[in-house]
User: Fold this.
Amino acid sequence: MTDLQQTVLAEVQNQVGHLILNRPAGLNALTLEMIRLLQQQLDAWREDDSIKAVVLRANGEKAFCAGGDIRALYDSFKAGDGMYTTFFEEEYALDQSIHGYSKPILALMDGFVLGGGMGLVQGASHRVITESVRMGMPETGIGYFPDVGGSYFLSRLPGELGAYLGVTGTQIRAADALFTGLADFCLGKDLISELHSSLNGTTWSDNPGQDLTDILKTLASSAMIGSELKAIQHTIDRHFAHDSLADIRQSLTTEECEAYQDWAEKTAAVIDSRSPLAMSVTLEMIRRGRELDLADCFAMELHLDRQWFAKGDIMEGVRALIIDKDKSPRWNPPTLAGVSAEQVDEFFEGFAPSSTASRRQA
Assistant:
């Protein structure tokens, strides 16, 4: 294949392995082929003593990775070929391996980092964004839940921010990404070439992770002013701490502080547009995730996946937003009032944490 045809490019510069997502016309949305190429190369570099660190980046100006190729998963379920299940199994295995990778990984993100893209980067040791980044887990908008480890990294955000971001699918900008801890450094786009020059000119020590940190400290910032979430976190915490999504929705309508009423009204409107079932399962999943370790969070998400295409709202969401594009999904049930606690709990039946740590926490 030529570089234009390959969906993942790999190259080595100065003992650094560069993995480059190369599907810019599709916003670098992940296919099963891409997942396998990424895993194979990471496995090879793990065993290669000459490789000191890995950089994960993408071609194209619009997106690092806008998620998984959801149309292909929709088609797979319709065809009954089982590929969609294999996709999730291998995607989660890749994401989990990044969390535990034995060498530092610098994820360099620009543009959209959504869904499956978040799964690729949240386990990286050095998560570097540009000022143009837009991060989020928008799955409830298509009748799905925030997977790829979302039950782990969202549940560990300050206060109720993870529940808020997971339920509403709100996308955040650079300052909020740093504030929440979903990114470590922000690098100006005009300094990307200088970062590459520094990587190429470094003499690596026995601690390449610290070497990367030292480079980033000279070029990038670990904090930014203007975090919108920081300004309203106490309000988010107050509303999203309620037991059920219906109670959260009701609480938003009673916001008395004039400064937050507009936000509360918009948030309630977003909730009204999303899948009631997907949001309710998401809330439960994130709260359960707080008591689980990483491996069990991925296992819980796979447990949900194996039911969701048949029993959840994703097929209808993809139909309405991607296939027919009528943007009028017929959610089942259509309202929060129709979602019972028993219906939500049923999705989690049969799942048991496997690790000692998770069982002890539970």
Q: What stands out?
A: The chain has two domains: 8-136+170-219, 242-361. The longest helix spans residues 294-311. The chain has a mean pLDDT of 96.
